[in-house]
């Protein structure tokens, strides 16, 4: 399907989703969010890792589109916020690993998009932040909640109340970003990590992701119960049989995700 503001490129089982509206630093307007929603819903079934990054040289995503938001009524803002939340939730719910490759500005909705991925790698040029209070609003695509779960309440409050723009090294120190790479090496590194994951059982990865996500909002006892059940459920799957058989036969496993 042809999109205007995003681009999906697939190489084997790895897809790279570019937010590609560089003239507005990839700002998320309604059309871009709708395209993202549609692309995430119709991701080809053979995609097993998704990398999300920004088109152009300068930005991952410089936020929600301020020009569009400036004119919204309360009701329209609720709708716009709901659309953004749906996109972030759809990304988070994908049963495959998602990696944000933050290649430049990731501000407001841009940081929120990155935080909805499983983890974030950044280029040395990246600048992250949640500057919404400087516009008289608050993060509206899940930032108050996802950032807090990653960096803790005090750091999240510090970042959100100051609106500070932080560099990749600082974001790594806070645990928002896992690793920092020279700009030209960022996507290659993401792909190398994706290749490693492709060697493992997609079914087991999907289960691990599901349990990590669902368990994060529960107490330890309930969360461990989710793990116990998911672990048991994997027995009898073709991937479990193949993974263990391959180990015993001292060969590389060939997983089918079944
Ligand atoms: N929205 C719309 N247009 C943008 C945005 C944006 N977020 N960011 C940049 N642009 C546009 C600029 O207006 C400019 O357009 P033009 O060339 O037509 O003037 C073009 O992109 C290039 O930008 P700059 O000239 O400003 O480039 P600089 O290198 O000078 O600065 C910055 C880069 C620092 C990234 C700067 O553009 C900036 O500060 N952008 C805004 C960052 C920001 O505040 N982001 C947060 C937005 S609020 C948000 O994301 C809320 C999310 C939840 C919404 C929930 C709604 C219910």
TrEMBL record:
GO BP term, pick one: fatty acid beta-oxidation
Pfam families: ECH_1
CDD domains: crotonase-like
Keyword Methyltransferase assigned: no
Annotated keywords: Lyase
Domain of life: Bacteria
Gene3D superfamilies named among the record's database cross-references: 2-enoyl-CoA Hydratase, Chain A, domain 1, Lyase 2-enoyl-coa Hydratase, Chain A, domain 2
Lyase recorded as keyword: yes
Ranges annotated as spanning the membrane: none
Gene Ontology molecular function, alphabetical: hydro-lyase activity
Classification via InterPro entries: ClpP/crotonase-like_dom_sf, Enoyl-CoA_hyd/isom_CS, Enoyl-CoA_hydra/iso, Enoyl-CoA_hydra_C
PANTHER family noted in UniProt: ENOYL-COA HYDRATASE, MITOCHONDRIAL (PTHR11941:SF54), ENOYL-COA HYDRATASE-RELATED (PTHR11941)
Family membership: Belongs to the enoyl-CoA hydratase/isomerase family.
Entry protein name: Enoyl-CoA hydratase
Species this chain originates from: Corallococcus macrosporus DSM 14697
């Amino acid at each position: 399907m042809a999109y205007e503001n995003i681009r999906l490129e697939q190489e084997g089982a790895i897809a790279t989703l570019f937010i590609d509206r560089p003239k507005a630093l990839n700002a998320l307007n309604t059309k871009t969010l709708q395209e993202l929603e549609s692309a995430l819903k119709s991701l080809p079934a053979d995609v097993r890792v998704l990398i999300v990054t920004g088109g152009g040289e300068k930005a991952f995503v410089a936020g929600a589109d301020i020009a569009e938001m400036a004119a919204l009524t309360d009701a329209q803002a609720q709708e716009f916020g709901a659309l953004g939340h749906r996109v972030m939730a759809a990304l988070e719910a994908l049963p495959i690993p998602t990696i944000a490759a933050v290649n430049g500005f990731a501000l407001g909705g841009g940081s929120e998009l990155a935080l909805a991925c499983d983890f974030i790698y950044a280029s040395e040029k990246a600048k992250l932040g949640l500057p919404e209070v400087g516009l008289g609003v608050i993060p509206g695509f899940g930032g108050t909640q996802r950032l807090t779960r990653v960096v803790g309440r005090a750091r999240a409050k510090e970042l959100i109340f100051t609106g500070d723009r932080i560099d990749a090294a600082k974001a790594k120190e806070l645990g928002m970003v896992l690793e920092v790479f020279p700009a030209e090496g960022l996507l290659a590194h993401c792909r190398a990590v994706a290749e490693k994951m492709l060697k493992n059982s997609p079914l087991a990865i999907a289960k691990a992701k599901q349990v990590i996500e669902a368990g994060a909002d529960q107490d330890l006892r309930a969360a461990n119960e989710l793990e116990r059940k998911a672990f048991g459920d994997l027995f009898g799957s073709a991937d479990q049989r193949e993974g263990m058989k391959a180990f015993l036969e001292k060969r590389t496993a060939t997983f089918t995700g079944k």
